[in-house]
Specification:
3 domains; GMP Synthetase, Chain A, domain 3; eight-stranded mixed beta sheet; alpha/beta; 574 residues; Rossmann fold; five-stranded parallel beta sheet
């Protein structure tokens, strides 16, 4: 079976075809042994074929699920591609998962094998496996721990296995595009994570929608700084397959604490992050500004003000335009240099990006754009563009994506990007994928509420997160939380009040700001109608991944927080 260029049936078919085309080009760059190391496309293909042969020799085949637990490093996409190439199904899992999380995913997915990066992570997986059944093969990049009834192997053994790249590529080129590529478990802001079944067609549909935009940016052969975990649906699709196949070199960041240095060193063309990172970057910029002279602070403030006016109006007059050009050289160019000087797009996803936050960066000359997606949609649904950026929206839907608003305001999505369903969960699948009267193809019911204005999608709320107060008023906690966290005194916020006479808030103060939180709440309340105002608040301990109150993508687990801090919430009503 032959396929036209860029019309591959599966992700491994695409990656191995690119490797044949670009054998000597750098594909991945990672920090190892105190220096940056590079892996070429050709070496990637050789190692992928070896790992595929190794897995097959140990009985892993079509339909088998394989857990993949690793930090961002080249072994992740090599294992990922090898698993898919033999018809098995990858189950990418967060390195921050606790043994109980692994137990749920192992039990639900029925994974037979696991590829794990470090011994410490492998021990967590084995703790989870002791509570589940079926795991009988472990491959560890480091020395694997021992466990009764489980065969452990080192990564070196896998990549030393003879493999046939050409034969594997030919096999992948004839694989069905509707076969499952991966099971990605949702972060679970409420309830247990569900396994989203994503076929190859869904991820390739995302690629078909995004690659024309990437090509227009003209960034082939330039670096992409991979910061989000590869187990996240966005990074798995975009950083794992989409951008590499479009010709970008993927550079794996060493973490948030190294990001500022890496931006200057790597000079990436694209960076993706969650809104929380942009909040931290803004805080660092403003903290550094406090140390500058009053004159430099005035220049910064003027550059910010003119940049915002250029976006939002009224139009700049001639004198302001001249000022703006001068400030672009004096202020914005320094800011662009601080971020590497070559950024064409800083993409925010995973949660709502406050327009004031994105406006701050755009006004200072940094191309922050917001996209929208869900794991259930491959995951990219829409994205703004640097040359047509409406920051109050999440951009127009990708090519090939149908998007409409239901009568109750819910955002509905249809197209090849949509999942097959939820693994072992027909009830949840039926609720999420519904066919409208007179139609044959189901729509994905996203659970988000929004509007479409001039082709641009704007998300206003989460449908199931509305709070109904005792007086019958429907209030969006996300709106109020966003305003609270925009205040420099507040690090995290959760608004509660279901069935209560008024709203209350659990607030995590920013460092050194505990005595100033009340001022921030007063400022926010002044912007809100009476029914949305915070009646009482409680300063609380931080929501973290470690205490189970934050997802790996930095989203607060609303239900878990209200359960864990229920006494604090109830205390505010006494």
């Amino acid at each position: 079976m032959s396929h036209a260029p860029e019309n591959w049936p599966t992700l491994p078919a695409m990656m191995l075809a690119r490797a044949a085309q670009w054998a000597d080009r750098p594909l991945f760059r990672h920090w190892h042994g105190g220096a940056w190391r590079s892996l070429s496309w050709g070496d990637f293909a050789l190692q992928t074929a070896s790992v595929a042969a190794f897995l097959r020799a140990r009985g892993i085949g079509p339909g088998d699920r394989v857990l993949l637990v690793s930090e961002n490093r080249p072994e992740f996409p090599i294992a990922d591609t090898a698993i898919m190439a033999i018809g098995a199904i990858t189950v990418p899992t967060y390195t921050t998962n606790l043994p109980g999380d692994h137990a749920h995913i192992l039990r639900d997915s029925g994974a037979r094998a696991a590829v794990v990066s470090t011994r410490k992570l492998a021990e967590k997986v084995l703790e989870g496996a002791a509570l589940a059944e079926g795991l009988d093969l472990l491959i560890c990049i480091e020395e694997p721990p021992t466990a009764a009834g489980l065969t452990g192997h080192r990564w070196e053994e896998a990549i030393a296995t003879p493999g046939d790249v050409a034969m594997l590529a030919a096999e992948c080129a004839s694989a069905p595009t509707d076969s499952l590529a991966c099971l990605i478990y949702t972060s679970g802001t409420g309830g247990l994570p569900k396994g989203v079944m994503l076929p190859h067609r869904a991820l390739l549909a995302n690629r078909a929608g995004v690659v024309p935009l990437v090509k227009r940016l003209g960034i082939e052969n330039q670096p992409y700084l991979s910061f989000l975990p590869l187990s996240h649906a966005y990074e798995h699709t975009v950083g794992g397959f989409l951008l590499p196949s479009a010709g970008l070199e993927v550079v794996y960041s060493r973490g948030a604490d190294r990001l500022s240095h890496e931006l200057a060193e790597i000079t990436p063309a694209i960076l993706t992050a969650v809104p929380r990172l942009f909040e931290l970057l803004r805080a660092r910029i403003l903290a550094g500004l406090e140390k500058e002279s009053p004159f430099k602070r005035r220049l910064f403030d003027r550059a910010l003000a003119l940049g915002l006016r250029r976006m939002d109006g009224p139009p700049l007059n001639l004198f302001q335009k001249l000022q703006d050009r001068v400030l672009d050289r004096l202020v914005r160019q320094k800011m662009r240099d601080r971020f590497g000087g070559k950024l064409r797009a800083m993409v925010s996803g995973g949660a709502r990006l406050d327009p004031d936050l994105s406006g701050f960066f755009i006004a200072l000359g940094l191309p922050v754009i917001q996209g929208y997606g869900q794991t259930e949609a491959g995951p990219v649904i829409s994205v703004n563009l640097p040359w047509a950026n409406r920051r109050h929206t999440v951009g127009p839907a990708l090519r090939g994506v149908e998007c409409r608003i239901a009568e109750d305001g819910e955002v509905l999505v249809r197209g090849d990007l949509v999942m097959t369903g939820y693994w072992n969960n027909p009830e949840a699948t039926a609720a999420a994928l519904q066919t409208l009267p007179g139609e044959d193809t189901p729509w994905l019911h996203t659970g988000d509420v929004g509007v479409i204005e001039d082709g641009y999608l704007r998300i206003t709320d989460r449908k199931r997160d509305f709070i109904k107060t005792l007086g019958g008023d429907m209030v969006s906690p996300a709106k109020v939380e966003c305003l609270l966290m925009a205040e420099p005194e507040i690090h995290q916020a959760l608004v509660a009040g279901e069935g209560k006479p008024a709203l209350v808030a659990l607030l995590v103060p920013a460092e050194g700001m505990a005595d100033k939180v009340a001022d921030a709440v007063r400022r926010v309340n002044a912007k809100l109608p009476t029914i949305e105002r915070i009646r009482h608040f409680s300063a609380t301990e931080a929501f973290t991944i470690e205490n189970g109150l934050l997802t790996p993508t930095m989203k607060v687990k609303r239900r878990a927080v209200i359960e864990a801090r229920g006494a604090e919430v109830e205390g505010m009503y006494r």
